[in-house]
Amino acid sequence: MVTRILNSSLMVFVTVGDFFSILGGKQMSIIDELKWRGAINQQTDEAGLADLVNEKAVGLYAGIDPTGDSMHIGHLIPFMILKRFQLAGHRPYIVIGGATGSIGDPSGKKAERKLQTMDQVRHNQDCLTAQMEHLFGQDGSFKIVNNYDWLSKLSLLDFLRDFGKLFNVNTMLNKEIVASRLEVGISYTEFTYQILQSIDFLHLYKHEDVQLQIGGADQWGNITSGIDLIHRQEGSDAKAYGLTIPLLLKADGTKFGKSEGGNVWLDPEKTSPYEFYQFWINTDDRDVVKFLKYFTFLSQDEIQQLADAVAAHPEKREAQTRLAEEVTEFVHGHQAVVEAQHITKALFSGDVADLTANEIEQGFKNMPAVTVTTEKQSLVEWLVDTTKIEASRRQAREDITNGAIRINGEKVTDPTAEIDPTSAFDGKFVIVRRGKKRYFLARVQ
Fold first, then answer.
1. Which segment of this protein is annotated as the motif 'KMSKS' region (predicted)?
2. Would the annotation count 258 as a binding residue?
3. 225 and 188 in one domain?
4. Are residues 276 and 201 in the same domain?
5. β-strands 210-216, 241-245 pairing
6. Number of C-alpha atoms within 13 angstroms, CB side, residue 384?
């Protein structure tokens, strides 16, 4: 089989068996690359998997349950690994858990999940499918499947006779995801989750030639259960493998994936591309090289150069800027990067006049905001009575006279000036800056 690897304008054709990532002038297999990136926690058979990925285009999968209508950046981690396999010429499958999502994975949970309606599950499926198609492309080199398609066809008797009989309760109880819940209790519904996930692996192994499952560190028990099921049904020599990814911690010891405002979502309606970009820009110097390895497709040489820049000139934040550019483009596209950088530059310099209404919506999302009418008004009255940006008319006139007030990026020094809320930004917004850094947004209705 022949695959192609795209790197900027360079196109190289290689056989899968001879595939190597060219990183820093060194030939590196896909497994070695993952090791260098610090992206492997455990493997069920390291030598066997290393041989397999050099022999053929391997079918592999990672799953996600539709418990929400968007992924956040914590979900992105295993799918970055899947993407690397895709670029290396392998065959990624994404399992949307239409069935398991209606049950609830106990992994990482201290209590039972709240069951969702099937309508909500189907809505979430559609949203996650759209996100995956954006991340993995639509060139036919990957496939999205839904485990509802096969699990929903199992009768209770089939489930108990064909699968339940093959799982030892003592072994299931010893799995970390179950053992951690025994003190507080776990329902039979969630207890059987590992059986359903095991059936997924078996189904994909038999019908799609999928031999590798990838997941987070907390999925080790579920993955090994699937491999055990394959060996029981297909023979002990069946080539099925598991690979898990380490729990990603920040330098301060906290779990990666959240900002002060909560989850950082891939859905631009939940987390704007500008906010997404800013999350990565604000990465700690101690974490930025690790995140470059995890979340970008930059080469070893490129990442080393950025690591050297962090050590020599951390104040320039070159590594953070590159990280933000790469991840934002991967998730939201190049235009989102351009807009995020435009907003960042405008807010830093105060030159906001050239921002579009969409950029204002993103950049000022979390800044103080008020709603105003389209009525023209004395600027002093507008600042005091309408928006309450200023505490008194005296203070408003003083700030205007001293040049401390900017309206839509323009300094206003005339205390008798009038304001027209519809004069800029398609008549939707007025941006007020008081002093050097305090911004306020007025939404025009």
1. 255-259
2. yes
3. yes
4. no
5. parallel
6. 15
CA distance 229 to 175: 15
Please check whether residues 166 and 217 belong to one and the same domain.
yes
CATH number, domain with residue 399? 3.10.290.10
Q: What is the CATH number of the domain that holds 194?
A: 3.40.50.620
226 and 274 in a single domain? The answer is no
- One-letter amino acid at 394 equals R
* Contact in structure between 220 and 42 (CB atoms under 8 Å): yes
- C-alpha to C-alpha distance for 247 and 217, rounded to whole angstroms: 6
pLDDT in tens, 200-245: 999 999 999 999 999 999 899 899 999 999 999 999 999 999 999 9
Query: Residue 36: how many CB atoms within 10 A of its CB?
Result: 17
Residue in the block written with tokens 């069920």: 44
Residue 138 assigned ligand-binding role: no
Q: How many domains does the chain have?
A: 3
pLDDT tens sequence across 250-288: 888 888 876 666 889 999 999 999 999 999 999 999 999
253 falls within a domain:
no
Nearest C-alpha neighbor of 243 from the set 60, 97, 90, 104: 60
Q: Is residue 229 domain-resident?
A: yes
Most confident of 179-183, 184-188, 295-299: 295-299
End-to-end CA gap in the chain: 60
Please name which of 313, 337, 312, 339 lies closest in space to residue 324, comparing C-alpha atoms. 337
Which single residue is written with the structure tokens 């799953």? 63
* Domain limits for position 306: 258-349
Is residue 18 assigned to a domain?
no
Mean pLDDT of 420-440: 92
365 annotated as a binding-site residue: no
Give the tokens for residue 358: 């969409």
